[in-house]
Structures are given as structure tokens and as C-alpha cells.
What does this fold into?
Amino acid sequence: MNPVTYIAIGSGIALVVFLVVFYWWVYSRNRALGSPGIVSRARLVCPKCSQTFDYDFVPGASLTAIRLGRSRYMACPFCHRWSTFDLSSTRIPATPRESP
Ligand SMILES: [Zn+2]
It folds into this structure.
């Protein structure tokens, strides 16, 4: 095999390993925060109509919103107008688990 093939296979494996580790890390962190599994939840306030709603999202993936770094450009479920929502600052804070 030529070196290009090795590089292609190697970077493919590296990408898969990275994704597995990343989702495992998200999963375990979210479990620690008390939410089920891989989905994170943010409490968002619509800048247009000031309605508050909870938004569940999978970090790194999105079908219904446009990713802008840590923000999402998406439609408000109440007024259906498109706005930019900052997910990182509105992340629902962790509730500390009671120790057994
Ligand atoms: Zn709205």
C-alpha cells in the first residue's frame, strides 16, 4: 500500500476514536448532571416574544437548527420567528446529587 492509503485509514480511525471518546465524555458528564444520556438541555428565552422554553439538543449534532459555534440559529416554538440562542450561557445548571 502507498503512504496515502495509510494516512487515509489512520485519520479515519482517529476520527472514529475521537467521536466515540467525545460522545462517551458527553454521555458520562450528562449522567453526572442528572439528565438522561447524551441529550443536553438548555433553558432558552426568545428575544422576540420573551417566552421561556427548554431545548433539548445533542452536542455536536443538530437537524433543526444552524450551528454558530456555541449558539444556534433556530425558530422559536412559540412565535416561530428565527433568532440566535446562546446555548452555553443558558445551560441548565447541574443539581448536585445527594450522596447516599
Ligand atoms: Zn418567540
Remarks:
- The mean pLDDT is 78.
